[in-house]
Amino acid sequence: MSARAILAATAALGALIVLGGCDNLYKQPQDKGFQPSKETAARGAWPLRPPEGTVARDEAPPSPPQLTAALLARGHERFDIFCAPCHSPVGDGQGIIVQRGFPAPPSFHIDRLRQAPTRHFYDVITNGYGVMYSYADRVPPSDRWAIAAYIRALQESQHTDVASLPDDAKRKLP
Ligand code: HEC
Question: Is a pLDDT exceeding 70 seen at residue 17?
Fold first, then answer.
């Protein structure tokens, strides 16, 4: 066989392999974009809907719920789970993770954050802030309001004017 014949044979073999490959690819099942899969369509679950309570980042969040003891209790519980590790149980920014080297958040008791609207806390939980990540996937909107309300209570607790306390509370002061 001449060198030219060998080359031609190799090229033909190569073409066969390539064509064979194409043939297989062509026959593979494929989904077109933005179409329900057979399973989804069969369940009648199309178009897909976001889970209950999901709010797009550019959508206005639901308005704050009424302030109740139950809301504060829920906020307290969620705050201790999701926020206190960094912000500390009293919100001074010296949580356990910070003590181990994570950047310290500002204290919630500084003037700027005392004057910030309650919505600001809701938005920080939703979108994150600086090096703090978003908690949108772990804290649903109703819990964001609950936590925001609890932070307000924490701020109040550190800035209560003694004169505004009821008499029996004043008597308990050291
Ligand atoms: C892993 C640590 C961490 C956790 C957990 C965390 N934060 Fe933060 N947070 C930070 C840090 C760090 C900053 C400062 C970010 C910066 O300025 O770059 C911050 C900043 C903030 C601020 C201040 C924003 C401003 O205007 O300066 C608020 C409010 C806040 N966090 C709320 C929360 C709430 C509410 C939670 C719980 C849902 C939470 N954070 C959970 C680390 C954390």
Answer: no
Neighbours of 108 (CB within 10 A): 21
How many Cα neighbours within 13 Å face the side chain of 15? 6
pLDDT at 164: 77
Q: How far is the CA of 60 from the centre of ligand 1 (A)?
A: 21
Q: What is the pLDDT of residues 70-107, one digit of tens each?
A: 999 999 999 999 999 999 999 999 999 999 999 999 99
Using most ligand atoms within 8 A of CB, pick from 74, 132, 133 the residue to mutate for ligand 1: 132
Q: How far apart are CA 129 and CA 31, in angstroms?
A: 38
